[in-house]
Design brief:
The chain is mainly α. Helix content is about 85%, strand content about 0%.
Length: about 180
Amino acid sequence: MRRRLRWLLPALVAALSVGLALLDQWVGGEAFEAADFAFDVFERAVLFAAVAAVAWLTVGLRELSDAQAALREDLARAVALGEAWRAGNSAALDDVAAAIQEQFDDWSLTPAEADIAGLLLKGVSLREVAVLRHTSDATIRQQAQSVYRKSGLGGRRELAAYFLESLFETRSAAE
């Protein structure tokens, strides 16, 4: 439907412009001059094109608004589900958080390094960590490297895998 409108709309603008210019020429009773007629057609085409563009943009904005509302509803549902899950698993999550903090302590991470390691585990980018901590990208990279060096891990993936694999090993060992 939109593809048809893409071609139909300019044709309609052109037809209306020529038609109204012809009507104006006929009703005006003046002698036909090609330059005046062409200017009238152009002037009307610009006007109709502007009106059509506003209408097109209005429809597009409405669609974006509807999509945004749907995304907000989806996000609200996901947040509610997440909160319900966290509420139902708060004791286990507290245990995991304590175990992660204990491992950070075993690695002798500073409070800043532990904070950065926690943010990296959550999937926050180094740039986002720098913004959150109000510091430079270089400082965050250095602190992340210190985390990896103290932990003996090769990077963010190994850091995440270290804790995730432990979670899955615990689960499969319990079964």
